[in-house]
Amino acid sequence: MSEIGDPTFNSLKLLPGQILQLEFEGYNKNRNRSQLVGYYKDRSIIISTPIQQGIAVSVKLNTKVKVRLFVNQINGACAFESIVIHVSVTPFPHLYLTMPDRLVLGEVRKSTRAAANIITSVVIVTIDGQRKSVPSVIGNLSVDGARLSCQQLPTALNEEINIVFKVSVSDIEHIMRIKATVRSIQFDEARDTHFHGLEFVDVKASERETLRAFVLSQPHSS
Fold first, then answer.
1. What CATH number is given to the structural domain containing 191?
2. Cα separations (Å) of 181 from 133, 184, 205?
3. Which of 37, 114, 142, 178 could cross-link 218 (Cys pair, CB 3.0–4.6 Å)?
């Protein structure tokens, strides 16, 4: 992503309920999930206080925070830094943040992979023409591919398979049905597990947008 000085937070035209990922300075490095409540033009942003184990996270005044989100209007990622200027617990826990001086905007890169643990069904066609569903797990996911693990998957390099899995974006579950090509196969003898590197094929625009939003909202894998 690159810094772009012209667009402002107001120009993003975000709606209440927009999902935000927060990193508070001095707290753990985990991203805390929040929602946009609203904003006062050029003055302040109001967001919900992140909840952990049913309790609002205790945030001190003047805490610096990094905010990340996926913006449909620009079909890309946005990040900025801000400061907590007011903390309120009524009528629900929420925070007031300073308006950012600048935004960092950009596309989610193809190389960006989200760490995941997604139960997946791999649909393959056997030699006799029968369709077979094999359970597996997506260990990381990007806009253009995934790393799949399973004990046994009867497939070969460059073979096309179909995978079915769910991802949650903005509290909405999306069922993804994607065609993929097997680009690598590795076997971990200690864990008796096969790892398959997949490249997605002919992904629909709506599915690609959902994948971008999901990847942005998750911790990234190396």
1. 2.40.10.220
2. 16, 9, 18
3. 114
